[in-house]
Amino acid sequence: MTPQFWGSYAMLADVVFRRSVVRFAQEQGKKEIKPEEMPALAEEATALAREAIRLGPEEIYAYETALLIAGFSGAKEDADQFERAILRLDPSHPGALERQTAKAAKAPETGATQAPPCTPTGWPSHPTTLPCAAASTKPPSGCCAAPAGSPLPASPQQA
To answer: pTM score > 0.70 for this model?
Structure first.
């Protein structure tokens, strides 16, 4: 890992977070992780993601990784901040634009007819439970794995 390369930190943050979730689930014999358990599992990965952002402040993937971790750990304010940063870098980023548009439509001062149109993904800002491949030694699926190049894993409902 190159010490000053933002991408190494972003990828490591992603792997560390997913591994922490899987390891916790396996050690506890759980198939679902409660939202209140997630912040502790995300601490190390959060620090790595923030370092990636510090080293590559104009790199979308660093923010996408931080967004994934914040979303699952229930850090709504951080997730919102990362979405806004992504939109600053790429105003047409589909995931961040969709979530921010949905939030604007739900805001009390904005009526649904005043908000720009959006297509909801069904992806919650943070799930109520997190399904995991706890009993498997195979690469995880659902919450613990994402398609290549995807900033977010498959939705928990698809797991």
So the answer is: no
The yes-or-no verdict on residue 132 having pLDDT over 60 is no
Helices first, then strands: H and E counts in the chain: 5, 2
Contact 20, 66 (CB under 8 A): no
33: which strand partners?
130
Helix (H, G, I), strand (E, B) or coil at 56: coil
Q: Is 128 helix (H, G, I), strand (E, B) or coil?
A: coil
| Joined tokens for residue 72 | 């699952």
Range of the domain at 41: 6-158
* 77 vs 88: CA distance, rounded Å: 17
What are the distances in angstroms from CA 57 to CA 49, 89, 121?
A: 11, 10, 27
Total domains in the chain come to 1
For residue 140, is it within any domain?
Answer: yes
Write out the DSSP string of 14-28.
HHHHHHHHHHHHHHH
